[in-house]
Amino acid sequence: MSAPHPRRAAVTGIGVVAPNGTNTEAFWKATMEGVAVLDRITRDGCEHLPLRVAGQIRDFDPPAAIEERYLVQTDRFTHFAMAAADLALDDAGLGRSDTDAAPFSVGVVTAAGSGGGEFGQRELQQLWGKGSRFVGPYQSIAWFYAASTGQISIRRGLKGPCGVVASDEAGGLDALAHAARAVRRGTDVMVAGATEAPLAPYSMVCQLGYEELSTVDEPDRAYRPFTTAACGFVPAEGGAMLVVEAEGSARERGVPVRATLAGHAATFTGASRWRESREGLAQAIRGALDEAGCAPEEIDVVFADALGVPEADRAEALAIADALGPHGTRVPVTAPKTAVGRAYGAAPVLDVATAVLAMEHGLIPPTPNVFDICHDLDLVTVRARAAEVRTALVLSRGLMGSNAALVLRRGAAGAS
Amino acid sequence: MSDRITVEELAELMKKAAGVTVAPDELQRRSDSGFDTFGLDSLGLLGIVGELENRYGTPMPPDAEKSKSPRQFLELVNSALLAGA
After folding, report:
1. What is the spatial distance between Cα A329 and Cα A302, in angstroms, rounded to a whole number?
2. Are A342 and A234 in contact (CB under 8 A)?
3. Residue A65 near residue A82 (C-beta atoms within 8 A)
4. Which residues in chain A are contacts of B44 at CB distance < 8 A?
5. What 3-state DSSP class applies to A274?
6. Inter-residue contact A179 to A158 (CB < 8 Å)
7. Which UniProt keyword terms apply here (chain A) (predicted)?
8. What is the dihedral of CA B1, B6, B11, B16, to 10 degrees?
9. What is the Cα–Cα distance from A365 to A342, expressed in whole angstroms?
10. What is the DSSP letter of B32?
11. CA of A95 vs chain B CAs: smallest distance (Å)
12. For the residues A193-200, what does the mean pLDDT come to?
């Protein structure tokens, strides 16, 4: 079903709250410079756990960003989402009066991997410590995967189509694709992305069962995908929200089209079946290229999933080769997430934010802590590489078996 | 703690249970205004009812959590406390 003039979905705003920067400028500077911020976990109640290293956000002050009545009824993952949504809307030049003038034209979609674990733990401790009468009613909504979408919508008065995607790490890309579809169907603006907060005691214990998790306690050695020293991944908190807008709407408002979401596809190959993920990821890449009308040779950079598990890394390198052909060994590949860890569903959204910024700055950021590559990939290491980036491919896989690929094209604004 | 819930106590509970800051004298002056105009939603009011039940060790009337205004709420919960005393 292709209309003669399809409404293209543009990125017009970026909001990032990440371990290496709690605003988009700080995030880009640290990402471009390859500053690794992985560190020992210092959250209360976490120090004794065998998971020692993560990407923790240390300079985010919730009361400075969010009104108290929203803070008390939400988990940390929703605090990040509300703050990132504010940054993205502000970046897109959409103030409260703009969205109030057409509230049904602005929707929200987020992805979430685990919901509000810290809030949930507190209330469950009340339940077992004092009794059911001591569990607060906001527990009913705060833990929930859809909490961030709902709270962003309520707090900003956004009444357009809303949704949540719970499809594993790759859900971050699926949420952006969902937003692009909503735009193509007629909604002018979607606030879309993902944030996670997996670094509280209960949430961390839940992760200990993942065999892919790195338990190495030296921060600069804990997450080194595509090397012979690959020993798993480390988790991160935070994420990004984007403003995804109809290209025509952006033109009318006179704001730059920074990139377009040109193609997406998703597949499923089963939990921890990394060898099989080769075929699933390759198929997702082909699907995304097909939807974007993009030849493999047009891809100027690949943002890798980079799980850091040898079998999974091999499957990803082979999937890139399968789907891109000889171009797969020549195209620059990067994994800036080795600086901050994997923020589950938010990890690929941070990569999409980075891809847009890379297009605008003509710089591919490096893959910190990764040096000797044992796969046939041109991985960008040590320092950022100058390159004209017109088209970017972002890859994501989830521990539970989801695979997704997203193709972004540079907008008119990025052509300078 | 008295055997009557005052606007001061209600203001304190609104802050504690729902993060809504309102001065007691404003709550008194606007006691017929809807809770929503203070920024308190239905889950917030439910949390206040739960907190009161825990504090006073007695169930509140089922309609308390459906009260529209501070005046209506205080009348309901105070009559329950009085009856329980």
Report:
1. 11
2. yes
3. yes
4. 69, 73, 137-138
5. helix
6. no
7. Acyltransferase, Transferase
8. 30
9. 16
10. T
11. 21
12. 97
* Residue A406: strand pairing partners: A264, A394
Partners of A241 in beta bridges: A15, A193
Query: What's residue A1's pLDDT?
Result: 44
Closest to A74 measured CA to CA, from B38, B18, B41, B13: B18
Q: Look up residue B31 and give its DSSP letter.
A: T
This prediction has a pTM of 0.95
Closest CA to B31 of B49, B64, B6: B6
Q: Which residues of A touch B55 (CB under 8 A)?
A: none
Instruction: Inspect the interface and report whether the beta carbons of B17 and A136 lie closer than 8 Å.
Output: yes
Question: Are A55 and A343 within 8 A, CB to CB?
Answer: yes
Instruction: Tell me the C-alpha distance between A102 and A108, whole Å.
Output: 14
Does the residue B1 lie in any domain? no
In this prediction the ipTM stands at 0.89
Q: Does A279 have pLDDT greater than 80?
A: yes
What residues make up the domain containing B62?
A: 7-84
The amino acid occupying position A240 is A
Q: Which of A67, A70, A136 sits opposite B47 (nearest CB)?
A: A136
Identity of the residue in B47, B53, B54 whose CB atom sits nearest the CB atom of A138: B47
Give the residue carrying structure tokens 């543009």. A10
A219/A303 Cα distance (integer angstroms): 22
Write the single-letter amino acid at A388.
E
| Shortest Cα–Cα distance, B75 to chain A (Å) | 23
Structural domain contains residue B2: no
Q: List, in sequence order, every beta strand (DSSP E) within A189-237.
A: 189-196
* CATH number of the structural domain spanning residue B17: 1.10.1200.10
